[in-house]
Prior knowledge:
With about 625 residues, this protein is of the alpha/beta class. It has five domains: about 35 residues; about 120 residues, Response regulator (Rossmann fold, 3-Layer(aba) Sandwich); about 160 residues, Rossmann fold (3-Layer(aba) Sandwich); about 110 residues, no CATH class; about 160 residues, Histidine kinase-like ATPase, C-terminal domain (Heat Shock Protein 90). It contains 17 helices and 19 strands. The strands form five sheets. Strands 2-1-3-4-5 form a five-stranded parallel beta sheet. A five-stranded mixed beta sheet has the order 14-16-17-19-18. Strands 7-6-8-9 form a four-stranded parallel beta sheet, covered by helices on one side.
Amino acid sequence: MQRRTAATTDWLMTMRPLVNFCLVTIVCLLTAAQAIAAEHKHILILHSVGREFRPWNEYAKHMRAELDRQSPWPLDVQEHSLVAARSADLNPEPPFVDYLRALYTGHEPDLIIVVGAPAANFIQRHRKDLFATAPMVFTTVEQRRVRMSELTEYDTVVAVIHDFRFLFESYLSIAPDTKTIAIINGDSPNERFWQGEMRRELKPLEDRVEFRWYDKLSYEDLLKQTAILPPHSAIFWYQMIVDGAGVAHEGDRALTRLYQTANAPIFSHDDAFYGREIVGGPMHSALAGAKRAAGVAIRILGGEKPGDIKTPPTNFLPPRYDWRELQRWKITETLLPAGATIDFREPGVWQQYRGPVAFIAGVILVQGALISGLLFERRRRQRAEVQSVQRSAQLAHVNRFAMAGELTAAIAHEINQPLGAMLANTETAQLIAKSPAPDMNEINEILADIRRDNERAGSIIQRLRSLLKRTPFELKEVELAGLVRETVELLSRLAATREIRLESLIDSASLPIRGDRIQLQQVFINLMTNAMDALAAKPDAARVIEVSCIRRDKFATISVSDQGPGIPPHLLRKMFEPFFTTKAHGMGMGLSIARTIVEAHHGQLTAENKPDGGAIFHVRLPLMTAAN
Length: 628
């Protein structure tokens, strides 16, 4: 027993140094771990124009989350914003430099993360005055916006590449009918730089699409312009820091308002804007970029020298598209590039509402039997409507013949003038031809006069034939101002024989409408001849009819006014009823037919008394638009 105890004691004495070494090692490791855990890392994040300006705010948010996730040390993060970057004025920078210098004198941050190009330009201008040896990461910046020649051994860059031509061609490949692209970009110094780059890169596409720029407009005016873009347009959203009126736009509100008012799809270069308003396409990834920047930041905090870390700039990621926007703007999925991702696809109606759909289908089958019973009645009603339209057209044709009878004397007189001139010219030409030395130049002039008079007579006859021609109601493009002017010319001889002065005020601008030329002329003739009848009892000096044709908004208004006795107030509502007339020999169908014709053209025919005496009739017709 004693020998065993002694052996044990000798073994313990032999192992004591090893045990002591292990204990010391464990204590050192625990102490080092505690020291590492207790060591805070101080990080300064310098924002470009504000913490909530997109896309930089999305990168910064993801970067903070990645730093917290990857860092083995507690992080003390302070953030500042370079508000002065919203304008080209450098005067506010010195006070901001003094503020940062005073704030960090004696305890420079362990790392400075510069977010965005304006902040990168600022820090490079004042590197020596502020943080001469502090490690620095330039991120969320395009490589052209960093002055690479001025980088120090304490700097590293995590940048991206903008390829605007590739981006725009990618959109045109899925919307090949696009003719106009509105580019939304503000008026801050950074935005002006990128406008110049975009103009240069997109120049080869100018023969294919029209580019519109709005950087000098206020945002309110910009919204008005993008709400009325022509068909086959698109909108490219780059950014909106400061608009042309000097107003800053922070957060999401600017893009949201554009989406609410714009009449064209919107695409962008960065997925920080993706998820609600943007169609999609090739874009930079805020999450991927933040992960890369955070990884570089952790390496620097761990002891690596920034100048030794070389991170190649990244290009656009494979395209992603918002299914909801594709549906809204009718962009077919067959045109999307191979490998494209489609997000936010909604399940079909059958998957979402199988029970209700089955129930509705049963109801529809039941209703089908009821609807089939109504079809026969509907066909009868349609037949009656067709017959009514045919009879109305026949009645309008009869009415035109009645009006032509009143115009006969004036038309005959108008035709006699060119016929008489032709006869006189013919006789003169015969006399010249019989002379010993006929003057051929004078004969040629006489023949030209005869031809002009012949064309004039033919024009008069053609107008009368058009008025009397029996044709179905047919909508074609009609130049309304010219039609009113022609009608005034047609009735001018009748007015002269009645000793009435026909004055016209017709808009010189084009007034195109869709209508039936013959029936509309019938309306104007009816109104003007009614006005002549109203002046029958007036003295010569007061026999004036005014005809005007002007544009008012999206409508043309033709007015016919006279100085007659006016319309008795109690008869104003009955003027357009069939068979109502105040004339001794009238049928009472003229105004009724006129109103029917005007309403068939989606217009209005109204009458009122003028304050100074007489009546005025207004015909209001919708003008043609680009969509027509």
